[in-house]
Amino acid sequence: MSKKIGVLLIQLGTPDSPKNSDVRRYLKEFLMDPRVIDIPFFSRLLLVRGIIVPFRTPKSAKIYKQLWELGNGKSPLLTYTESVKSLLQQRFASEDVTIEMAMRYQNPSMESVLERMRKANYEQIIILPLFPQYASASTGSAVDKAMEIIKKWWVIPDIRVVSQFYNHEGYIDSIVERAKEFDIASYDKIMFSYHGLPERQVDKVYDSGLCQDHDCEKEITEENKFCYKATSYETTRLIAAKLGLTEDQYIVSFQSRLDEKWIQPFSDKVIEQWGKEGKKRVLAFSPAFVADCLETLIEIGGEYQEIFEENGGEKVQLVPSSNDHPRFIDCLEDLVRKSS
Known about the structure:
The protein is an alpha/beta fold. The chain has eleven helices and eight strands. It has a four-stranded parallel sheet, with helices on both faces. Strands 6-5-7-8 form a four-stranded parallel sheet, sandwiched between helices. The longest helix has 30 residues, at 41-70. It is globular. 43% of the residues are buried. The mean pLDDT is 97. It catalyses: Fe-coproporphyrin III + 2 H(+) = coproporphyrin III + Fe(2+); heme b + 2 H(+) = protoporphyrin IX + Fe(2+). This is Ferrochelatase. Pathway: Porphyrin-containing compound metabolism; protoheme biosynthesis; protoheme from protoporphyrin-IX: step 1/1.
């Protein structure tokens, strides 16, 4: 590459520490994002600062403390993202390409990282949110925030955005290779658990009709190609095909809901039902997360294990996320090269 290029990897974010004060600050910033809780400002303010944050902070801080212990005193999300940044930079060691990393919420902040990128005077900036499936609450929010900062610059370079990469072979292979570490045939059921979204947020993808009117569980079409539900199902089909899985072996489900009006089926309810049906061993994937985090290590690896045991099951085995797998780095390198 002859151009001077800056690449901005964006992850969701993490508290600076498991302390109540840091968790509270993180939750406020995260939940006050209008793309995350898409209700009018004053209603969101009352809900977040008056109800959710005061009641959720102490419980969340305890959970983050467990997560830090699993991460040897540090956020696993931050650790893996830093590793990905370093490994990807090595792929461009002989080229004028600089890899940067920022968190949508908290640190390293997008403001500080983008200011460094502004001063570097790049000819091109590639914005690459680390969310395989597009959702307004993740990719949309990250790009929105980056553009909000960049639009204030006097000089705006060529900007390229990678909006999703759910079907990139490198990303799919990184998950498949993780799965091959386990004896898949020894599990009674396989779960592909994606982070949940309110139904109204996937409905907003369409100019007419609702998500349920667009066969999102069956195929990718011109209309649903940016629907989170549709790309989640397609991601699963691509992984299943490479692993030789049949449809009766697995289910697509959604976790981390706040109420009953989120995308179904709910992962925790599926786990509970499988336990009651006499299933003993479950293999769980989490393809919406490229780095292991609270939702994978604690929610699936811990909470779902408890639910399963309480209902007669024995083992919920989490398949690690892509993390810093070489094939995932291949994916990111290819996305950068094709965007430049």
